[in-house]
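Handout, page 2. Input:
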Amino acid sequence: MIDLKRDGDVFTLTMTDGQNRWNTTFVRAFDEAIEEVEASEGPAALVTTSSNEKFFSNGLDLDWVQAKGLPADDPRGDRKAFGDEFMKLMARIITLPVPSIAAINGHAFGAGLMVALCHDIRVMREDRGFACANEMQIGMVIPNPELALFRHKLPANTFFETVQLARRWGGPDALAAGVVQQTASAEDLLDVARARAEELAPLGAHRKQYKKQKEAMYGENAAINSVHGPAHMLRNMEQFHS
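Output:
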């Protein structure tokens, strides 16, 4: 489901669960990997990618979210715990005390785009795949904490087209619009992301300072036109129901 390897100062987290749809079991597996990264010492950086050539992450596990009468031992986990645990994981990633890079090697839809935006830097495959907040297309409203995240991470015009018009951003358009910072071929994507991670890993030696500055950027009272920033809102979702 989640494979974490370390090569020198670079951790590579690979999502290996097919389309990498988000449910409680997936959240907890991802969280365990992040905990291992946080527990490391010295220079470090994280690269997150997928083993699926078509999907980086295809968003929420909608069949599970919408199913009725799930058994208590459903392998996808406790549905009631999902919203809170997922949002807290996003807050953990956005304030990770080491540099983080999302290597978007396929479609990143909904929650998949959200997790990519929680990383410091995004590198996207240039020839295939879309980044899209597809909630409007499937009749869902984006929660306010997620909107706060998008508002901080995206330029204003890109933010509107992404969240309200559900625009699908291919690699070149995503780069031009500021959704990602770099594009690469499918063959070079992971190498490019890891090279950038190696370059930034020394910043991870100063964990306390790196995290503190992120908290100042994305935490309480840091959001434009909002009482709270996305890190605070993601951790306290119950305060911000739509």
